[in-house]
Specification:
Helix content: over 70%
Strand content: under 5%
Number of strands: 0
Order of helices and strands: HHHHHHHHHHHHHH
Structural class: mainly alpha
């Protein structure tokens, strides 16, 4: 067995059991944080860049042509992100009478753009990666205006943001590696070597993603136990509402299955890492906000990978059901022929 073949098999298993792998990395990071503390600052940007390179290598020119033909879908996605999640956060905070700090943290998470990890999840569940990257790009470019505006409207609190810094981060971590990977696919997509490398990139993306999650837990792990059951329940409901309402929004607008899954993940998975940074920088006297954001960061990553794997499981089950119906349809005919022959 060749090296690429072995790596392809490993990559396939990593993609199939992403949720287990990421959760396992989370547990390791919690008990042995020193193994993941390196995933911060510049190294974190490099890891994210590797993930986005893997995403870009799955994009071809035809994906961009399809995307350009449906600008309405991206606009719809951006509107869904900046309405569903902030309003859901506000409603949950009111229903459960959360403290001011936890309310701030939850609304900060809901008002942030889609996370880079959502692109990975869309990639893993065979969603529309070009659509996912397009939505993340648009929502992040809008975030310097929309995030502080939404927080101000809902809480009456002024949040200033480094808009230029966010745009630079987006260009370095998302646009450049995605563009590089996509250009390589367009130029060398028919070459056997590129096909072999592309076949192992899903596994590379999963490992890199697990490192990102591990890095967050290594830094904020101790805060998780401080947050209590209520905030865990609120974050779970907030995240789940995003998945469900995002999917229904796509369904009501007659999007195909790949885009329904993508919009579901894009709405449900927010850039909670950005919310954690905002709460730490602009609200240092409100530690509960940072706790809610940090817990959301990890939970969105884990739940998103679980959802992506559920989508894949549903696909495999559907294929098996079709195969069983076909097999069941032809088996009786074969038995009948044998019976007639013996007579």
């Amino acid at each position: 067995m060749g090296l690429f073949k072995l790596l392809e098999i490993i990559s396939r298993y990593l993609a199939k059991y992403t949720a287990l792998f990421v959760v396992g990395a989370g547990f390791i990071a919690y008990y042995y944080p020193h193994l993941f503390t390196w995933v911060s600052g510049t190294s974190q940007m490099v890891v994210l860049g590797v993930i986005m390179l893997a995403m870009g290598m799955s994009l071809h020119a035809r994906d961009y042509r399809i995307l350009a033909q449906h600008p309405f879908d991206i606009c719809l996605g951006a509107v869904a992100q900046f309405t569903i999640m902030p309003l859901a956060a506000f409603a949950i905070a009111k229903v459960f009478s959360l403290s001011d700090g936890l309310t701030l943290g939850l609304i900060l998470v809901g008002s942030c753009p889609g996370g880079v990890s959502s692109n990975i999840m869309s990639f893993l569940c065979k969603g529309d990666v070009a659509y996912s990257v397009g939505m993340t790009t648009v929502s992040t470019l809008l975030a310097p205006v929309m995030t502080p505006l939404l927080v101000t409207l809902m809480l009456g609190t002024d949040v200033s943001m480094d808009g230029i810094g966010m745009v630079k981060f987006l260009i370095i971590v998302t646009l450049i590696p995605v563009g590089a990977g996509s250009l390589c696919n367009i130029a060398f997509g028919e070459k056997q070597l590129f096909k072999s490398i592309s076949s192992i990139m899903p596994g590379v993306a999963v490992i890199a993603f697990a490192c990102i999650v591990g890095g967050v837990i290594a830094v904020h792990g101790e805060k998780f136990l401080e947050s209590g059951l209520v905030i865990f329940a609120c974050i779970f409901m907030h995240n789940t509402a995003g998945y469900i309402l995002g999917y229904l929004t796509a369904k009501f607008n007659h999007m195909n299955t790949a885009r329904r899954r993508t919009l579901s993940i894009e709405v449900g998975v927010q850039n909670a890492g950005l919310a954690t940074g905002l709460s730490s920088k602009f609200f240092p006297t409100v530690p509960e906000a940072a706790i809610a954001s940090a817990v959301s960061c990890v939970w969105h990553s884990i739940s998103g990978t679980i959802l992506a794997n559920l989508y894949l499981w549903f696909d495999n089950r559907k294929v098996r059901n079709i195969e069983n119906r076909i097999t069941g349809k032809f088996k009786p005919q074969a038995i009948t022929v044998q019976s007639d022959y013996r007579k």
